[in-house]
């Protein structure tokens, strides 16, 4: 007999508990998935696709847009450079792209651990808020006398 789990509400039914009395985990999983497959198309499916799609979109946008961003930064901030006018220096370009990859790995490990501790549903919402805030902060960033644009972008990445 499987352990009953908490969860389930009007939007998301907890199919695991419907078959908790079945000892074989593979049979229990098969029956739960069969119930999900039989469900008629409705808002449940739309909500699941939209929520998953927003998460994938924000992650993909954050990772793949940086190539365009570094090109635009070169045009805006390195117009007066002595060499390769309008092109970001290689070291700055590399630093921004490494910060993107490093932030992705640290985020996966950190948010994955926190999701196990706090709960996936709560952590997904918090992670989405952090991604939106950091993206807006990057978009509004500019250089100053105290820090370069590269440093600010690296910080928010």
TrEMBL record:
Q: Where in the cell is it found?
A: Membrane
Q: Which residues form the Major facilitator superfamily (MFS) profile domain?
A: 48-157
Keyword field contains Membrane: yes
Q: Which UniProt keywords apply?
A: Membrane, Transmembrane, Transmembrane helix, Transport
Q: Which domain of life is it from?
A: Eukaryota
**Which InterPro entries would you find in this protein's record?**
MFS_dom, MFS_sugar_transport-like, MFS_trans_sf
Reply yes or no: does the keyword Magnesium apply: no
Q: Which GO terms describe its molecular function?
A: transmembrane transporter activity
Which Pfam families does the annotation name? Sugar_tr
* TM ranges: 128-156
> GO CC terms for this protein?
membrane
SUPFAM superfamilies (alphabetical)? MFS general substrate transporter
Topologically, how does it sit relative to the membrane? Multi-pass membrane protein
Name used for this protein in its record: Repressible high-affinity phosphate permease
Q: Which organism is it from?
A: Cryomyces minteri
């Amino acid at each position: 007999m499987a352990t009953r789990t908490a969860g389930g509400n009007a939007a998301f039914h907890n199919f695991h508990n419907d078959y908790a009395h079945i000892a074989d985990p593979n049979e229990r999983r098969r029956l739960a998935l069969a119930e999900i497959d039989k469900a008629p198309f409705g808002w449940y499916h739309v909500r699941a696709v939209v929520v998953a799609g927003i998460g994938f979109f924000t992650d993909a946008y954050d990772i793949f847009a940086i190539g365009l961003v570094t090109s635009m930064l070169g045009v805006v901030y390195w117009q007066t450079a002595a060499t390769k006018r309008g092109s970001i220096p290689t070291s700055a370009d590399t630093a921004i792209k490494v910060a993107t990859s490093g932030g992705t790995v640290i985020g996966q490990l950190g948010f994955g651990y926190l999701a196990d501790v706090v709960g996936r549903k709560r952590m997904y919402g918090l992670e989405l808020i952090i991604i939106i805030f950091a993206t807006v902060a990057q978009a509004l960033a500019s250089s100053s006398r105290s820090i370069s644009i590269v440093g600010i972008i690296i910080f928010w990445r």
